[in-house]
Amino acid sequence: MPAPQPPVPESPETAATRAKGRPRSAAADRAILDATREALAELGWGGLTMGHVATRAGVAKTTLYRRWPSKNELVVDAVASLFDELVMPDLGSLQADIEAVVAQFAALLARPESQAALLALFAEGTRDRQLRRRIREAIVDPQKRLVRQGRTAAQARGELAPDLDEATAREEVDIIFDTIAGTVEHRVLVSGEPVTPEWTRRFTVLLLGPFPVPSAG
Amino acid sequence: MPAPQPPVPESPETAATRAKGRPRSAAADRAILDATREALAELGWGGLTMGHVATRAGVAKTTLYRRWPSKNELVVDAVASLFDELVMPDLGSLQADIEAVVAQFAALLARPESQAALLALFAEGTRDRQLRRRIREAIVDPQKRLVRQGRTAAQARGELAPDLDEATAREEVDIIFDTIAGTVEHRVLVSGEPVTPEWTRRFTVLLLGPFPVPSAG
DNA sequence: TCGCTTTCGCTACGAGTCGTAGCGTAACTG
DNA sequence: CAGTTACGCTACGACTCGTAGCGAAAGCGA
User: How far is the first Cα of chain B from the last one, in angstroms, to the nearest whole number?
Assistant: First the structure.
């Protein structure tokens, strides 16, 4: 779901159909987003220019700017949909569920278009509060459902204690999400080393504890 | 320790003193790196231009390009030194040691100059193998000493089992490093939420296990 | 002291990108 | 059909890029 520039920014309207004049081409929207993903994979974040995207999409540069005010916003929308493919399976154990999601996430991060875009987006987000909000709304927060689903399933199995209160549970979801997402991103995008099943298993064991201390079975 | 362009790229020399002609100004080096850090804090990665850095450092643009071939390399050197301040304390318990390092790292990431630079550097590194190598050599790998020191101290206290073999130990250091660094980065730079002592404690507990299961005291 | 070498600051350059404005045309509504 | 909006196209000034050429400055060895 892209977030185009509102055709008429300040017009409360009846919020119903605002069909008046020539409607925006939905085909252009798709062509632009596809072109953005392709260009990202080929040229990376730095090599991506608005002019290039427009040409590749068969669209005038003006048309592009009419919908997305800058490269940042454009890329958020172009990338966000990539993350929708992540699903939380129910494999019968928390360990297996986490390993499966980690593997999915790692595979996603291995793709050129997400690799080129994600960290660059995050980097811009550190300076632009609005952009950071959009990143969270479009990319980060929707994926927290995975953690919530996994927790719920594990609680149903008795692997996890039920939530005591809402606030604590939310904080715990945040911590777990930051840990899984951050670690996999760091492994793949910074260290640049592959996420093998072996690594995934070890990481999950570390996450679920116990730490390999002598006294622990 | 900056990595300037070699004055005469291909000259084995006797590797001794290559003093011939006017030597490069060490003051210019310092002025450039200082200007880079300042400009990063003020303008962010995207706003940082080579011309701006040169002007601010009181140096000709040509002088800048003689030493660093691009913005990427310049920023690596300008930022790497920031990380040298991290130290692993010996507070008597692994929990306390990790909490202390997490707090230091979070404080470092909260500074504008590192915030603007780190993720952007990582982003560029995903497309440029040489840059990624330089980032690892200059920033990432040196900090793994913290994990090794913490492990050694914990082993001496009996909190951790001694290493069985070298390869496994190295992998474990990598996993722990990716987990701590990645999680804190994600919390501060992506989620954009503060690293409080409370959060640090909960994260460390999660890391050291056991996971808060019902049967665990 | 005098060359020799290298770096210095400065200026200027072509190439490329940015985001916007103006134009005439196309598409859709009442 | 008139009104409205989106469209493709062209052109624009402002900016950054990385490089080249210049004369002057700084250190070296003879």
Answer: 49
